[in-house]
UniProtKB/TrEMBL annotation:
<dbReference type="Pfam" id="PF00501">
    <property type="entry name" value="AMP-binding"/>
</dbReference>
<dbReference type="InterPro" id="IPR000873">
    <property type="entry name" value="AMP-dep_synth/lig_dom"/>
</dbReference>
<feature type="region of interest" description="Disordered">
    <location>
        <begin position="1"/>
        <end position="21"/>
    </location>
</feature>
<keyword id="KW-0067">ATP-binding</keyword>
<keyword id="KW-0547">Nucleotide-binding</keyword>
<dbReference type="GO" id="GO:0016020">
    <property type="term" value="C:membrane"/>
</dbReference>
<dbReference type="InterPro" id="IPR020845">
    <property type="entry name" value="AMP-binding_CS"/>
</dbReference>
<feature type="domain" description="AMP-dependent synthetase/ligase">
    <location>
        <begin position="78"/>
        <end position="494"/>
    </location>
</feature>
<comment type="similarity">
    <text>Belongs to the ATP-dependent AMP-binding enzyme family.</text>
</comment>
<keyword id="KW-0436">Ligase</keyword>
<dbReference type="GO" id="GO:0005783">
    <property type="term" value="C:endoplasmic reticulum"/>
</dbReference>
<protein>
    <recommendedName>
        <fullName>AMP-dependent synthetase/ligase domain-containing protein</fullName>
    </recommendedName>
</protein>
<dbReference type="GO" id="GO:0004467">
    <property type="term" value="F:long-chain fatty acid-CoA ligase activity"/>
</dbReference>
<dbReference type="GO" id="GO:0005524">
    <property type="term" value="F:ATP binding"/>
</dbReference>
<dbReference type="InterPro" id="IPR042099">
    <property type="entry name" value="ANL_N_sf"/>
</dbReference>
Length: 673
């Protein structure tokens, strides 16, 4: 067995500590001199000056489409990607930096970026770094109270936002205390420039005007040092108000250094599809890694990702088809939807096409899991050419590798991506507090359910958690709470010393550690598997412990499940679940079984539907060898999807458990009666 993570001695609390097998010391910089994000970007732009850096799709038109039930849906027609070079990107960032000075922003003040992912977001970030400004980032999906809290707590004076977020700012302007200036990005969908009412004293300037001012009135760069705070990143958080994590330039550069070593042959010929929230550490770290390598960043969105995405006009191309990315980052919920969409397409064709697909998939799975790399390679080439080529075209047909992070990826989805897209998919594990990737699966590792060994810039330690019964002496593998140490571990939470002291510690050697609250186990080859989370464990009436997150990660593999929340009550001996149904799969089943219904909500309420979904959950649970008490005894089938906008999931599509419990308190109560 290949050793991927090696055991090392470490300071701090006793435990089992691993580091990456390829690097005897922790990496802090990707190359000499790249000690800050500003230096990293400047050097990459100099090295790759003529190559395409940032791409944005041409907007052609927007129109409303009325569905059969009378609902109106917005559809976009988008053209080709229009690119700016690394040289242009650097010049725009430099002009923007000077422009911020010209409109009155001072070095001691903080800037906030409050916008959906796009090229101007990245340019604004790099522009702020040219003047050593600390950037406050917030998810575009944050609610009004959270937006006001984040801006007030950090005393932001300049907000850089898009049109959609500008409207949110206006809605809470009476509750924002320190904002003086708003820089408004151009609307990508052709809307006219906004204006502030007389009651608002903010100085409103367009993004283009700020760049033009900076071009006319250039000022020397004031570059940061590694210990300067680059970003205060507000997490969307699954409970309470968001917390601001303070990341230094040194923290982020360490992540870039480590992750860059784990993507084989990353370089200028790669194209990366950037569509996840840039205010999330996974996407921010990903874009910094890709741009440092001289690869092109093509911007898109989850709603325009594929030809069948909800905002794409039928018959026109989605972002992936147009860009043909070679590298892709995704969260499991998006990959699950890709998987379900392909299966729906195959099932709808039926006949010989479905038989061939099922045969190809079955043979490929056997080859991948049991016949060795040579046989798998032959099967992949053969079936990839005649069966899976159309599936691969969904994501552009050129993807050579994917990264999944933010939540556990199901075994079924991981294998589906391996086979149908012919690409390795590396699972990563990390947190905002560790600047993203603390562990990262190696591409040639085809195992499922694991998140790989420690990245080259981190140590990962397991320590005993007595209360939960997890110990480093457990057999056959050491288990315990995951603690991450190294140069990417952040300073702590902004203006929250109590919470910082609770979960961050610096040992006698000077290494900083973050106590994650996640529970893991080390496999014999040094790879980490996430098996539990302290906060998600509930003790049932008869003393059994149920790990809600673990059970949810397994049950989401049911084709009927779009989202699921398992709920356990200490006063009962069983658990229940709220299930957001996958409409297409459920309607296909109803048609096959000749079940009559008026509309989708009517179908979800039928007893036959509940029984069918519950049976599917039980089958999935049995395959995963869940205990009987871990399997939901009753379910409530829900119609409306859970989105960040509804406040029921985070921007990374993790469940906001308390919000869901509050929103569906009546339904949960009924399940226990």
């Amino acid at each position: 067995m290949k050793e991927r993570g090696v055991t090392v001695e470490a300071g701090g609390d006793p435990g089992v500590t691993k580091r990456n097998h390829r690097f005897p010391t922790l990496l802090e910089t990707p190359w000499e001199g790249a000690v800050t994000l500003a230096a990293l970007f400047e050097q990459a732009c100099g090295k790759h000056s003529a190559r395409p850096a940032l791409g944005t799709r041409q907007f052609i038109k927007k129109e409303a489409e009325i569905s059969a039930d009378g609902k109106s849906f917005e559809k976009l027609t988008l053209g080709k990607y229009e690119w700016i070079s690394f040289k242009d990107a650097f010049e725009q960032a430099s002009s923007f930096a000077s422009g911020l000075v010209a409109i009155g922003h001072e070095k001691s003040e903080k800037c906030a970026i409050f916008a959906e992912t796009r090229a101007d977001w990245f340019i604004a970030l790099q522009g702020c770094f040219r003047q050593s400004l600390t950037v406050v980032t917030m998810y575009a999906s944050l609610g009004e109270d959270a937006v006001a809290h984040s801006l007030n707590e950090t005393e932001v004076t300049t907000v850089i936002c898009d049109h959609k977020q500008f409207k949110k700012l206006m809605d809470v302007n009476m509750h924002i205390n320190t904002v003086k200036r708003v820089v408004l990005m151009d609307d990508l969908e052709g809307a006219s420039q906004e204006s502030c009412p007389d009651s608002v004293t903010w100085k409103l300037t367009s993004f283009g005007e700020v760049k033009e001012l900076g071009k006319q009135q250039p000022v020397p760069a004031t570059l940061p040092v590694p210990t300067d705070i680059a970003v205060i990143m507000y997490t969307s958080g699954s409970t309470g108000m968001p917390k601001g994590v303070m990341m230094t330039h040194g923290n982020m550069v360490a992540t870039v250094a480590g992750v860059s070593q784990l993507i084989p042959n990353i370089g200028p010929t790669d194209r990366y599809l950037a569509y996840l929230p840039l205010a999330h550490v996974l996407e921010l770290a990903g874009e910094c890694v890709v741009s440092a390598a001289g690869s092109g960043l093509g911007y898109g969105s989850p709603l325009t990702l594929t030809d069948n995405s909800s905002k794409i006009k039928k018959g026109t191309k989605g972002d992936a088809t147009e860009l043909k990315p070679t590298l892709l980052t995704a969260v499991p919920a998006i990959l699950d939807r890709v998987r379900d969409g392909v299966r729906k397409m195959v099932d709808s064709k039926g006949g010989l096409a479905k038989t061939l697909f099922d045969t190809a998939y079955r043979r490929s799975l056997i080859a991948l899991e049991g016949s060795g790399s040579v046989i798998w390679g032959l099967e992949k080439r053969f079936w990839g050419t005649i069966i899976f080529k159309k599936v691969r075209a969904i994501l552009g047909g050129s993807v050579r590798g994917m990264l999944s992070g933010g939540a556990p990826l199901s075994r079924d989805t991981q294998r589906f991506i391996n086979i149908c897209f012919g690409a390795p998919i590396g699972q990563a594990y990390g947190l905002t507090e560790t600047c993203a990737g603390a562990t990262f699966s190696e591409w040639e590792d085809i195992s499922v359910g694991r998140v790989g060994p420690p990245a080259p810039h981190c140590c990962v330690k397991l320590i005993d958690w007595e209360e939960g019964g997890y110990r480093i002496t457990d057999s056959p593998m050491p288990r315990g709470e995951i603690v991450v140490g190294g140069p990417s571990v952040t300073l702590g939470y902004f203006k929250n010393e109590a919470k910082t002291e609770e979960v961050y510690k610096t040992d006698e050697t000077g290494m900083r550690w973050f106590y994650t609250g996640d529970i893991g186990q080390f496999h014999p080859d040094g790879c980490l598997e996430i098996i539990d989370r302290k906060k998600d464990i509930v003790k049932l009436q008869h003393g059994e412990y149920v790990s809600l997150g673990k059970v949810e990660a397994i049950l989401v593999a049911s084709s009927y499940v779009d989202c699921i929340m398992v709920h356990a009550d200490p006063l009962h001996s069983y658990c229940v679940a709220l299930v957001v149904a996958t409409q297409g799969t459920l309607e296909s089943w109803a048609q096959k079984e000749n079940i009559k219904y008026d509309n989708f909500p009517d179908l979800c309420n039928k007893e036959e539907t509940k029984k069918e979904i519950l049976k599917s959950l039980q089958q999935v649970a049995k395959l995963a060898k869940l205990e009987k008490f871990e399997i939901p005894s009753k379910i409530k089938v829900l119609v409306e999807p859970w989105t960040p906008e509804t406040g029921l999931v985070t921007a990374a599509l993790k469940l906001k458990r308390e919000n869901i419990k509050k929103a569906f308190a009546k339904e949960l109560e009924e399940l226990y009666t």
